[in-house]
Specification:
alpha/beta; single chain; binds magnesium ion; disordered N terminus; Rossmann fold
């Protein structure tokens, strides 16, 4: 196992390139430990379904030929595109306020592709005026080691297996899907929405619900109101967003902050919600808006919020949000993964 992955690494090609746009050259490239690093796979940043089909039906040689033949045709934006654009809008504001600071979003494009396909990806990045300077082409091997080396704060991919691997390594990660319809989102304010249990928090309470039902869950949460919830896989990303938000607050821009965060949970305010709020407060994390839906569907609420991305551990909620035009990403973590299909309709919380 070790040997083969070492061998694979020999094929790895990492390109750091400067897009054609000249203004990028004056920007500092932040060190990974200072930046909020978001790694995005090419299959979620762009729409590559047609190419995927060529690969699946005709094999790798035909696929490479196809990509080279089409290398001057940019890919269309994929589900992570508006999110990445919003990260860049926040960076513009941060650079105005703090020209020398390295505390910025840093976007890494991760792809399993062969270097030949890189040309088409670079052409696409320039076509869409994206400022992506880090580019990791793994030639088929797993990107997880590189995600760690880059101090990745969030990894978004179409490959659920890789997402699970990243989560197992303690990296915040989520699977994204190709949506059928998309709600228009803000170009100047980044909006990120999180589920609570098994996303920001551990799945401790979710386990009670899944094994003993809703009444026991409420009872458990009431009894444990003053005991903090353990942290979940996306807590670190909320923390990173909070760190950048504070930079705007420090300049008197709290009301005009270009980052807004939301908790969208099926917990109910009166009973189980208080434990969630107490936990966030104890962690020193502010969430701008908290919505306790008490089991009501999340889709209509998310349609109003219009987040660039919404994270949930249950496919039921991810699908419900996506049906209403929200870009929803699945966090394959915790007890809900064992119940994914059979309890679809009975997901009361
Ligand atoms: Mg949950």
């Amino acid at each position: 196992m070790m040997k083969s992955s070492r061998l694979h690494n020999l094929h790895l090609l990492i390109l750091t390139f400067t897009p054609l746009s000249t203004q990028i050259s004056v920007f500092l490239q932040p060190k990974p430990e200072n930046a909020v690093t978001v790694a995005v796979s090419s299959r979620v940043l762009f729409r590559t379904e047609r190419e995927q089909k060529v690969f699946e039906q005709k094999g790798v040689e035909e696929y490479l030929r196809y990509q080279i033949e089409h290398e001057n045709e940019p890919f269309a934006p994929g589900p992570a595109f508006p999110f990445v654009k919003a990260l860049e809008a926040v960076n513009t504001r941060l650079r105005e306020l703090y020209p020398q600071s390295e505390e910025l979003f840093d976007i890494v494009l991760v792809t399993y592709n062969h270097a030949h396909v890189g040309i088409r990806l670079i052409n696409t990045i320039n076509h869409h005026n994206l400022f992506i300077e880090r580019f990791c082409m793994t030639g088929g091997s797993s990107p997880i080691g590189y995600l760690k080396a880059w101090h990745t704060n969030l990894y978004l991919s179409a490959d659920a297996e890789k997402v699970r691997e990243a989560l197992a390594e303690g990296i915040a990660a989520a699977t994204m899907f190709m949506p059928e319809k998309l709600t228009e989102v803000s170009e100047s304010q980044l909006r990120v929405a999180f589920d609570g249990d098994a996303v920001l928090f551990s799945d401790e309470s979710e386990r009670i619900f899944k094994t003993h039902g809703l009444d026991k869950f409420f009872e458990h949460e009431k009894e444990n109101e003053d005991r903090l919830l353990d942290h979940g896989p996306l807590k670190g990303f909320l923390e990173a967003l909070g760190k950048l938000q504070k930079k705007f607050y420090a300049k008197g821009q709290r009301l005009d902050c270009p980052i807004r965060t939301y908790l969208v949970t099926a917990r109910s305010a009166a009973s189980s919600g208080i434990r969630a709020l107490k936990t966030l407060r104890a962690w020193g994390l502010e969430i701008d808006e908290a919505l306790f839906l008490a089991g009501a569907p999340k889709g209509p609420m998310l349609e109003k919020i219009r987040p660039h991305i919404y994270f949930d551990d249950q496919m039921f909620h991810v699908e419900g949000a996506a049906e209403m035009g929200t870009v929803a990403a699945h966090v394959p973590y915790g007890i809900a993964q064992k119940y994914s299909s059979q309890q679809k309709m009975s997901s009361g919380k």
